[in-house]
Design brief:
The chain has about 400 residues and is of the alpha+beta class. It contains eleven helices and five strands, in the order αααααααααβαββαββ.
Length: about 400
């Protein structure tokens, strides 16, 4: 979550910063906190003290007992209305102002109510409420004038008190709006951080699955071919058995090395090729080694390439070509054992690279080998991510078989 600091917003109270950093998950109106109860109690006490002072002044100027009693009752009612100012700020301020027309004992309650309205009402409604409070206080000055204070002075004092209450309330309102904005920003930042982490995790998983399939499927197919040969030819010469066992051992060792390489690269994507004990990533320059390995496993493979300098091909593009050929050879061994495989690579800088992997129909019965087609789907995704395209399907020639065709960009 994005943290809201006091250095960034020095005018906010610590409690406001805490609310901004830890938003209320329930939303809507908050329940009164201990701080809210304390503020409401102080506001009620202030209004009561002002009312008591006004009633005492009424006795000093020899007001009748009935008037003093009415002031006491109406002042108490206005003070009690303040407990509803959080839920109904406009109604509370207007009611206190209307009561204040006939008694000056509500002066403190009116100031507190106008302050509460300024905290919670938009500017247009606040202007109407404050205007009504000023009109009511002006009428009260005409109905119950104080003989010790000039009428103009009384009017100015009322105006100044209402302006101070309104301005202070608007300041508190703007601060609370800022806190709400910071709270929303913190919630949005937390959500976005979670989405970014989830997307990064998903991308890493897809990369691991794609690389593991492309690399391990090739090695494990070699293991399967030679293990099957040993199973169906237990009477083979010892030299052939020894050679097959060596290929199985080497393929298993290569599979483990490839797996370590994949995990290492994905854990440290910024490392250079070959750094940290990892072997170099395959490129177009290492395609000959892949073809030779397939030939040693018994697959008849022909490679035809006219790329003048395989090392000049961009590393990412060359690696994609390598994976396409690797997947094509793996599928040929699995689904068309004994078939001939032709690999053609053509391209120039600016024209792009064209890769064709074709295998003829198998000479004998096709064994049932489990497969989900995810390898070809992964190749299509890999080619698309590289800015190219890939298609695959049955071969168009009279020999049938299967063909994979891909085009990849090669900038000039």
């Amino acid at each position: 979550m994005e943290r809201v600091t006091h250095a960034e917003y020095p005018w906010l109270l610590p409690s406001d910063l805490a609310r901004a950093a830890d938003p209320d998950p329930r939303g809507g109106r908050r329940r009164r906190t201990v701080r809210d109860w304390a503020v409401d109690t102080l506001a009620f006490a202030f209004a009561c003290l002002v009312g008591i002072a006004v009633v005492h002044n009424s006795r000093q100027i020899n007001e009748s007992d009935a008037v003093v009693l009415a002031d006491e009752i109406l002042g108490a009612v206005a003070c009690l209305l303040l407990w509803a100012r959080r839920g109904r700020p406009a109604a509370t301020a207007v009611a206190a102002s209307v009561i204040g027309i006939v008694t000056p004992a509500t002066g403190g309650a009116v100031v507190v109510a106008v302050f509460g309205a300024a905290v919670r009402l938009p500017p247009r409604r606040l202007a109407a409420v404050a205007g009504a409070a000023f009109v009511c206080s002006t009428l009260q000055g005409f109905l119950r004038p104080d003989p010790e204070i000039d009428g103009v002075v009384n009017l100015v004092v009322n105006l100044v008190m209402l302006l101070l209450a309104t301005g202070w309330g608007m300041l508190v309102r703007s601060r609370r709006q800022l806190v709400a904005a910071l709270r929303e920003r913190a919630r949005r930042a937390e959500t976005e951080a979670g989405l970014r982490a989830e997307q990064a995790q998903r991308a890493a998983r897809e990369a691991i699955a794609r690389e593991m399939h492309d690399v391990l499927a090739h090695r494990l197919t070699l293991l399967s071919v030679h293990a099957g040969a040993l199973e169906f030819r237990p009477d083979a010469p010892s030299a052939e058995v020894s050679r097959a066992a060596g290929v199985i051992r080497d393929s298993a060792h290569e599979a483990l090395q490839d797996l370590r390489q994949i995990i290492g690269v994905l854990r440290a994507p910024g490392d250079a090729d070959g750094a940290g004990g990892n072997r170099p990533q395959p490129t177009l320059a290492t395609l000959d080694a892949l073809i030779a390995e397939s030939r040693e496993a018994g697959t008849a493979v022909t490679l035809d390439t006219d790329v003048p300098d395989p090392a000049a091909v961009p590393a990412a593009t060359g690696r994609t070509v390598y994976r396409i050929v690797q997947e094509g050879l793996t599928n040929a061994r699995k689904h068309a054992p004994g078939a001939r495989v032709d690999v053609l690579v053509r391209g120039r800088p600016g024209d792009g690279l064209t890769v064709d992997v074709r295998n003829t129909a198998p000479p004998g019965p096709v064994p049932h080998v489990p497969g989900s087609g995810q390898g070809l789907i992964g190749l299509s995704e890999r080619a698309t991510l590289a800015g190219g395209r890939l298609r695959h399907g049955p071969g168009a020639g009279p020999g049938g078989g299967f063909a994979v065709h891909a085009w990849l960009p090669w900038p000039a």
